[in-house]
Amino acid sequence: MNGLSGNLPPSTGLRLPNLEKLNLSGNKLSGNIPLYFSNCSKLNGLDMSSNQFTGPVPRTFGHLCILEWFSLEDNKLTMEQGNSTINFLMDMTNYSLLLSLFIANNPLGEIIPESIRNLSSNLQSFDASTCQIKGEIPKEIGSLKVNSLGLSDNNIHGTIPSTIGEMKGLQRLYLGGNELEGPIPDEICLLPNLGEISFQNNMVAGSIPHCIGNLSHLQRLFLGSNKLNSSIPSSLWNLENLLFLDLSSNLLGGKLDPNTKVLKVLESIDLSSNNISGVIPNAVAAFQSLNSLNLSRNSFWGSIPKSFGNLMTLDFLDLSHNNLSGAIPKALEALSHLKYLNLSFNRLSGEIPSQRPFKNLTAESFIDNEALCEDGRDAIANKDYLLAIMETGVECAAELPERRTDIRDVVTKLNKIKLQLLRSGYA
């Protein structure tokens, strides 16, 4: 990264026969990529990422037969006019030594060719995310031997091909941010080394495969914002290495298994915006490493488990928009790392705890509950608070603009009054 700008020399007579590695990444180079790079017959590493190159990738790059590492990501490269496939991938079938291929963040805008099956058997990483790729994922993708496949944030439609189960060495699979539909194929459970699945923001439907519990190396599972239904398979809670779980914004129902296995390394759970019901299992409180728990916008009922006070690393807790009842456990005062708490839109009653971390919370954390109060006072209107609201309104409506209270001060006052009313049980 040297801050270089402008176009590369256009001379076709330039020859660098002994050049083995070339790194031009992180500059402001622009224009078309010159053809003479294809004359660098000994080149085994080429990095032109994070520039402003435009136009098509030269098809003569297919002559670089001993290339091992090739990166064109983060440019403005497009396809040749009249072509409907990413044709330079077809030219790379000669790259028998290629280990890494990165073309992400370029507006290529075409489909993946079936010839992708002919890419190097040594290829370990292939990333074509955010390339405006169209069409379907070809079934030939299963021929790749990669450990990381990135096709996220494109315009890919159709279903996830079952041939994905043939990629036995796959460790990371990124398909999020597309228009994929249909079920998650059971064949995904045939990938013993899979550590990350990212399918969020698609239209994937059906149930989560029960066999997902066989993926013993899985650490990250992102299935949020799809159309998944049925219930969460109990086998999912057998994933002892799971760190991050996001199943939010789906159509999942049923209840959480009360005999859920303790996942000691799990750091984040997001089950928000589903149709899950029943009581919140005490077993969740045994997830010792949990720092974020979002169960909002479901149909959970019963009380908030007192055992949540044992989640000492928790800094985010959202239980809003459920049917929870009873008192807020004072045990939550022990959560010294808690920075965000939302218990609003439930049927909670009784006292709002007053010790840390509740001291720094606003009214938004508790609004629209049945009868929350502070220090056991009855939920009745307090005329002083009502007068304060009326006075604030009068200040806002003053005839002369210069006498009107600044809107930021109004918001501050109303928030304070709101919290006081809530804690008195009136709100």
Question: Can you characterise this structure?
Answer:
With 427 residues, this protein is mostly beta strands. Among the domains are: 253-376, Ribonuclease Inhibitor (Leucine-rich repeat, LRR (right-handed beta-alpha superhelix), Alpha-Beta Horseshoe), CATH 3.80.10; 380-427. Helix content is 8%, strand content 20%. It is built from three helices and 27 strands. The protein has helices at residues 88-91, 383-396, 407-423; strands at residues 5-7, 21-23, 28-32, 45-47, 52-55, 69-71, 76-77, 100-102, 125-127, 148-150, 157-159, 172-174, 179-182, 196-198, 203-206, 220-222, 227-228, 244-246, 268-270, 277-278, 292-294, 299-302, 316-318, 323-326, 340-342, 347-351, 371-373. It has a 14-stranded parallel sheet with strand order 2-4-6-8-9-10-12-14-16-18-19-21-23-25, with no helix packed on it. Strands 20-22-24-26-27 form a five-stranded parallel sheet, with no helix packed on it. The chain has a four-stranded parallel sheet with strand order 1-3-5-7, with no helix packed on it. It starts with a strand and ends with a helix. Mean pLDDT is 89; it is low at 375-383.
Low-confidence stretches: 375-383
Characterize the biggest β-sheet. Answer: 14 strands, parallel
Instruction: Report the β-strand fraction as a percent range.
Output: 15-25%
* Total beta strand runs: 27
Number of helices: 3
Task: Give the % helix.
Answer: under 10%
